[in-house]
Amino acid sequence: MTNSIWAIVPAAGSGRRMAAETPKQYLLVNGLPILEHTLRALLACPDIRGVVVVLDPSDRRADSVASLSDPRVFKASGGAERADSVLSGLRSLTDYISLGDWALVHDAARPCVSVSVLRALIDRALSSDTGTVLAQASTDTVKQVGNNGLVAATLDRRSIWRAQTPQMFRLSELEHALSSALESGVSVTDESMAMERLGYPVSLLEGPSTNIKVTLPADLEFAEIILRRMNEESDS
Predict the structure, then answer these.
(1) Does residue 154 lie in a domain region?
(2) Residue 87: its pLDDT value, please?
(3) CA distance 68 to 35
(4) Which residues span the domain enclosing 23?
């Protein structure tokens, strides 16, 4: 039997850097909430069996997201940190998963991911049987800064990559890695970091520059342009 792929979308954050009263996943881009764009992309990928959206238990804005009513979408309650939320999403699938299933974790605020990029990541992870992360090679000169605020070193940018999502791992292994990090009090900023900590191999797949994360107000304008172009290309 073919193993299933389950998408996990942590969407319990407040988006403090956006400096908006509305959490960023609910800000409108081209007339729709960012989270709606993100879910539409995931649901359009035929390889994904279901999507778990992890929400703040007090969230009352979710009704504005039409795709949350799709029968393939499940909801789970988020926690204090990203690792808590992703782990909650994974554990909510206990009654549905089989041994060997995969988890594909994607940021709620990355609405510009395409089906072709999703399938490329899935193909790489499955064919190599290795956890895989979308990432972009650094094109900037990267500085390491000491506690005194002064430059300590210039790093070789050929070895520096900026991680994106989706990130895809065996579901049971990711659950173990996140549980271990939380139990040890280790703060992890993405799923790959938790996997690396336990020695699991992680491969990189170069992602497109259009797969932006909406973090700052200026990112909204970029997302609008990218999504408009993607829609035009799909209609042509």
Answers:
(1) no
(2) 98
(3) 9
(4) 5-134+163-235
Low-confidence ranges of the chain (pLDDT < 50): none
Task: State the residue for tokens 């990432």.
Answer: 135
Phi, psi for 181 (deg, rounded to 5): -65, -45
Query: What CATH number corresponds to the domain at position 192?
Result: 3.90.550.10
On whether residue 158 sits in a domain, the answer given is no
Please give the C-alpha separations between residue 15 and each of 18, 20, 129, 215, in angstroms, as whole numbers: 6, 8, 34, 7
Here the tokens at position 127 are 């064919």
Per-position b or e across 32-44, b if 16+ CB within 10 A of its CB: bbbbbbbbebbbe
Q: What is the pLDDT of residues 120-150, one digit of tens each?
A: 999 999 999 999 999 999 999 999 999 999 9
Residue 215 is given by DSSP the state -
Domain count, the chain: 1
Query: Of 181, 211, 20, nearest to 86 (Cα)?
Result: 181
171 in any annotated domain: yes
pTM: 0.94
* DSSP 8-state assignment for residue 60: -
Model confidence pLDDT, tens digit, residues 2-27 = 799 999 999 997 655 555 678 899 99
User: In the structure encoding, which two tokens stand for residue 199, read together?
Assistant: 């020695």
In a domain, 144, yes or no: no
Q: Rounded to 5, what percent of the chain is helix, strand, coil?
A: 40, 25, 35
Which residues fall within 8 angstroms of residue 207, CB to CB, at 6 or more apart?
117, 134, 135, 136, 164
**Coil, strand or helix at 93:** coil
For 50, half-sphere exposure in the C-beta direction (CA atoms, 13 angstrom radius) is 19
